[in-house]
Amino acid sequence: MSERSVAVVTGAASGIGRETVDQLLTEGWNVVAADVNSHNGERLLSEVDAACLPDRVEFVRTDVSDEAQVEAAINRAPERFGRLDSVINNAGVGGAFGPVTELEVEDWDYTFAVVTRGVFLGTKYAARVLKEAGHGGTIVNTGSLAGISGGAGPQAYSAAKAAVINFTRATAVELAQWRIRVNSVSPGFILTPILGSGGRHIERLQEDIQPWPETGRPHHVASVICFLAGPASSFVTGESINVDGGVTAAGPRVGDTVGGDPAARGLVGVARGSTGHESVVHRRIDRPDSAVVQRGT
After folding, report:
1. Burial environment of residue 209 by CB neighbours within 10 A (0 to 12, 13 to 18, 19 or more)
2. Which strand (E) or helix (H) includes residue 255?
3. What share of the chain is helix, strand, coil (3-state, %, to 5)?
4. What is the pLDDT of residues 49-107, one digit of tens each?
5. Do 166 and 209 contact (CB within 8 A), yes or no?
6. Among 250, 266, 281, residue at a domain's last position
7. 1 part of a folded domain
8. DSSP-assigned letter for residue 190
9. 153, pLDDT greater than 90
10. Looking at the structure, do residues 268 and 152 belong to the same domain, yes or no?
């Protein structure tokens, strides 16, 4: 048995989950890595073995839509490592896509079963173990930019992720009395396997939509997950943290699109609206090429 902190990570064998496992190990945690893809799970274990950390990770094949499998994965943490400190509900799929008039009900239900039910089940069994242990703990759920605004993902995926974000807040309030903190992380455009062929468009999205001049990678999200899982965030609960390179902050950027922003036209001055006082343009300046600015060069 070990007194190291112990986490269960779902969707642990690739993308954000895989990076989260690596960062937790670096920070000294033991990890139960849960994933439905056994091939990727075996690869994870071989990579951990190569890093001489085989005693600190256990892989459990887990379909997060199946209650018994989620319960078994979470209970495995105290069985193998003697305790549980955090459950990171990260598993997800792109799910149903197509015009809303053409979507199949079974595809819609599958999306919610993995994305939303998986988070519910992970939270349910995490809370049971943590309440019984009596030492508190953390639950971190993976939301999405798609769950915050329309147009950032398919309908079913967006709705399922919106449910995850709201469920996070509701359970954070419920579980606070047991010192169980519940937070979510909402990635923006992150280059992970879940994007599939859409990954080739990530740089264009960065140039057109994302203010920060860098492609989002799994480690950007994993570092925030690890912060929320650990003691450094001890007074943070019920939050959804966006890890999106400023996409949410930028909003619709109407001025950039239709030219309504005087600054975008190189003008400096003051607009006084309907005050009855005249608006003034003080000067015009040369603007650097926007593409250069966005790339940070």
Report:
1. middle
2. helix 254-258
3. 50, 15, 35
4. 777 676 899 999 999 999 999 999 999 999 999 999 999 999 999 999 999 999 999 99
5. no
6. 250
7. no
8. B
9. no
10. no
Instruction: Please name the residues in contact with 164: beta carbons below 8 A apart, sequence gap of 6 or more.
Output: 115, 116, 119, 141, 142, 143, 144, 147, 184
Q: In terms of domains, do 170 and 79 share one?
A: yes
Taking the CA of residue 182 as centre, how many other CA atoms within 13 Å lie in the half-sphere pointing to its CB?
26
DSSP label at residue 113: I
- pLDDT of amino acid 63: 97
Instruction: Say yes or no: 223 and 275 in one domain.
Output: no
Q: Is the pLDDT of residue 143 over 90?
A: yes
138 DSSP β-pair partners:
86, 181
What amino acid positions are annotated as catalytic residues? 157
Quick count: other Cβ atoms within 10 Å of Cβ 137? 25
Distance CA 35, CA 75 (A): 15
Is residue 188 within 8 A of residue 211, CB to CB? The reply is no
Strands (E), 47-136: 57-61, 86-89
Task: Give me the CATH number covering residue 31.
Answer: 3.40.50.720
Domain that holds residue 286: 254-295
Phi and psi for 154 in degrees, rounded to 5?
Answer: -60, 160
187 φ, ψ (degrees, to nearest 5) = -70, 150
Co-location of 187 and 259 in the same domain: no
pLDDT band at 26 (very low <50, low <70, confident <90, very high): very high
Whether residues 244 and 277 share a domain: the answer is: no
Same domain as 276, residue 199: no
Question: Which of the 8 DSSP states describes residue 278?
Answer: P
Asked if pLDDT for residue 167 goes beyond 60, the answer is yes
pLDDT for 264 equals 65
Number of structural domains in the chain? 2
Pairing of strands 86-89, 137-142: parallel
* pLDDT value at residue 227: 98
- One domain, residues 178 and 262: no
pLDDT at site 225: 98
Predicted structure pTM score:
0.87
